[in-house]
Write a structure and sequence with these properties.
Shape: globular
Strand order of the largest sheet: 4-1-9-10-11-12-13-14
Number of helices: 9
Largest sheet: 8 strands, mixed
CATH class: Alpha Beta
Structural class: alpha/beta
CATH superfamily: Ribokinase
CATH architecture: 3-Layer(aba) Sandwich
Number of strands: 14
Strand content: 15-25%
Mean pLDDT: 95
CATH topology: UDP-N-acetylmuramoyl-L-alanine:D-glutamate ligase
Length: about 325
């Protein structure tokens, strides 16, 4: 299956704070917050939602096509992605801008405070599915909001099945925008916090979302995820316990990559979510969304140790 992965392309600046953010917020002064956290470490990593998702798909044997906008500083990143078996032919370079950047501090409780510089991502609407050949499935992950809505409209018009993954943009997008994106989606996916934002802004609860989309997957951190489909019982998929916890950045993207691998080979949605759960744990055990690696045999062995026998996958 030809899978097109859209979303932000970015560099991640990941910092670790040796305390708890919550200990430094004063409830009686929340109308005026001025805080600076001294961090112990900082690492620059290749990131962005779309490359993170595509990287996991490539690890699992697919050749995903990355569709997004990047800046003048992307060339080394492109070579690295191509070496990892990610097709970057649909990436557009914006010559007068830098690639988007994600600045994130994580405390000892895995709470995060982050900022995002848009950069070349602001040009994402210049790309179009109308120029993409042989696309059978797509994921619309966090990106420029206007581009996300444009891609959803194009996928519906062209008959391309797509996953609506608003992610962090749930905070930015209006209720009408979030609703427009999910109508007609094959799958809507978000974490439990993001779904609460979506519910409040759109007025759509889980049952109402399923009137407009084929399925709803809500991830719940260490509690795993729930999978809901029209006319079927809710499936609860547990998280796979990590050997160690290093950094949560990119964990949700890895889950989506595993989920898409299952869709690519025609697995049922519960199995897809289980694949996502295994992929997410690998990311949690490493710093950044693309610093881990495994073979298919290693991945399969870990899957079967938690979920039982896995059917043969092409």
């Amino acid at each position: 299956m030809s899978i097109v992965v859209t979303g932000s392309i970015a560099f991640d600046y990941l910092m670790s704070f040796p305390g708890k953010f919550t200990e430094h917020f004063l409830p009686e002064h929340m109308n005026r917050v001025s805080l600076s956290f001294l961090v112990d470490t900082m690492d620059k990593r290749r990131g962005g939602c779309a490359p993170n998702i595509a990287y996991t798909l490539a690890l699992l044997g697919e050749r995903p096509r990355l569709m997004g906008t990047a800046g003048q500083d992307f060339e080394e990143y492109r070579r690295w992605l191509e070496a990892a078996r990610v097709d970057t032919s649909l990436v557009k370079i914006v010559g007068d801008k830098f690639t988007a950047s994600f600045f994130c501090s994580t405390d000892t409780e895995n709470n995060q405070i982050a900022s995002f510089y848009t950069g070349a991502m602001a040009n994402a609407a210049e790309l179009s599915f109308r120029t993409v050949e042989n696309c059978r499935f797509a994921i619309i992950s966090p990106n420029d909001p206007g581009a996300m809505l444009q891609y959803a409209e194009e996928c519906r018009a062209l008959g391309i099945a797509y996953v609506w993954d608003p992610g962090q943009q749930c905070a930015r997008m209006s209720g009408d925008e979030l609703r427009d994106g999910l109508v007609g989606a094959a799958i809507v996916i978000c974490n439990d916090y993001e779904f609460e934002l979506l519910r409040q802004k759109t007025g759509l609860d889980e049952a109402a979302v399923l009137e407009h989309a084929g399925a709803l997957v809500v991830t719940r951190g260490e509690s795993g995820c729930t999978v809901k489909q029209r006319g079927r019982a809710v499936a609860a998929v547990p998280a796979v316990p990590p050997h160690r916890i290093v950094d949560p950045t990119g964990v949700g993207d890895a889950f989506r990559g595993g989920l898409l691998k299952g869709l690519a080979v025609g697995a049922d949605l519960e199995t897809c979510a289980r694949l996502g759960s295994v992929a997410a744990t690998y990311a949690l055990e490493h710093l950044g969304g693309q610093s881990h690696a495994y073979t298919w045999d290693e991945f399969r062995e870990r899957y079967e140790s938690h979920f039982g026998a896995l059917a043969r996958m092409a």
